Known about the structure:
Blueprint: H1 7-14, H2 19-25, H3 34-45, E1 53-54, E2 63-68, E3 71-76, E4 81-84, E5 89-92, E6 123-125, E7 131-133, E8 195-202, H4 210-217, E9 231-234, H5 241-249, E10 253-256, H6 265-270, H7 273-290, E11 300-301, H8 310-319, E12 324-325, E13 329-330, E14 340-341, E15 365-366, E16 369-370, H9 400-415, E17 422-427, H10 428-432, H11 435-451, E18 455-457, H12 460-468, E19 498-502, E20 512-516
Parallel strand pairs: 8-9, 8-17, 8-18, 9-10, 11-12, 12-15, 13-16
Antiparallel strand pairs: 1-2, 2-3, 4-5, 6-7, 14-15, 19-20
Helix pairs in contact: 7-8, 9-11
Bound molecules: zinc ion.
Amino acid sequence: MTSIRVAAIALALLGIASGEIVKRQAATVSEPTEDEADAFTKELCRDKGAGEWFRLDLNDCRDVIQCTEAGLQALRCPHGLAFNLELQTCDWKDNVKNCNQKEKKRVVKPLLNTVEPLCQENLLACGDGTCIDRTLFCDGKFDCADESDENTCDIKSDPNSAPICNPDECRLPDCYCFNNANEVPDNMNPTNVPQMITITFDDAVNIENIDLYNIIFDSRFNPNQCSIKSTFFVSHKYTNYSAVQDLHRLGHEIAIHSISHSNNETFWTKASPDEWEREMAGGRVIVERFANITDSSVIGVRSPYLRVGGNNQFGMMEQNAFLYDSTMTAPLQNPPLWPYTLYYRMPHACHGNLQNCPTRSFAVWEMVMNEMDRREEPTIEEDLPGCAMVDSCFSNKPTADQFYKFLVNNFDRHYLTNRAPMGLYFHSAFLKNDPEILDAFLFWLDETLANNPDVYFVTMTQVIQWMQDPQPVSNLKNYEPWKEKCNVAGPPFCYGGTNCELNTDELPGETLRLATCMRCPNRYPWLLDPLGEGYF
Ligand SMILES: [Zn+2]
């Protein structure tokens, strides 16, 4: 989209004039005088921002003007386009919904940066000068009459935003931040750091994928002789809780991926603290009850579609004692990033389209999802955008060889640099539906374990445990947190469990099955009634 800025059009368009044309026309009685034109321009430009384009009339949506030092300047969008006031650029006609408006909606800004403070300590000024409590700014609710308290809220301008990382004050075990991606916890030499790999699976656990999990995790061992572990971000609908109970028994980590998995992506961006609580804390109530998990180990959250819920999500997590989130993606970079705590400002851009990252300080770990490099030959190919979920790294089905190379390349990006934990984030279908891809993955797993005495496949919580108490590879054979549920023998708690057939008023007309080793609930557990008791 090109901008045509032709000052001459403005003059013709306006019927008013300045500069040379005015002088030439000054003699004509019907034309405005120089003073009148100036006054008109002044009035027009009084409330316009620098460089702001606006419409003089509503005749043609392609035409706009702006105020400049040299007077008014006009722009006409090319044919087929219209001027989009909100985006301040020429845009496809169908995208432009503001042809009936003369100017961009005015957003009143708060008066945060004045030479003399306008308010007493701990108060800040709304756009109209009213002083309100500083904490009310950017809290998701309008408190100023002009709503200006919610208008300047990105991480750099939120008056309550988390401070920039101060490594002197942010110390392990409770706090970890960095201003330089090359840093390693405890300033360890990377060659002494174990290469941790976190395999995760998202969505429902059920008979569609439980065989796959057995194939991957059965009889594979870390260098400390314990079975390799992974993390499951479980969404509620269609989940088989006797299968979840067995994954937990075997030492895998169960984390929460919401109850509804609502496919309205903006819902997750904008959800209120209560909605977040119902989805995630409610999801934990369901998992704990129906998979009988009683060891308080469900402490992780990943939001559906990797939509970050901003301060509302993280505030809910802090209040409900969720220790970590693994939803935020960091753009592809070398070296990749270590996980960090959110007491201080996040160390990377809020990555992704229209994402809502937290700006305030939270007692929550971010198990950041480092984007992967999808190129087959990274040294010679041009840059391509990264990808967070493994299945999103391939626009076409990869061959076994391509997938194997992808794993090796990305492993090296971690192992040969700062040894940040490497995440392999799957949806089960990617491996399940393609035996060749699964074979390539298992081959890479076996090869990696056989060749590297310093590579461990661990859960998200085990990564945090290591970061809180960093130990060199030589100490890891007897490192207690990684010995837990080392090799679990014996049969599952129950085989299959009861397949409860249930419904709920919250999902009218649907009958759903919930398999569990525990007693069947009265109703299908859902947002308002996570225990399925039948009253809410
Ligand atoms: Zn999902």
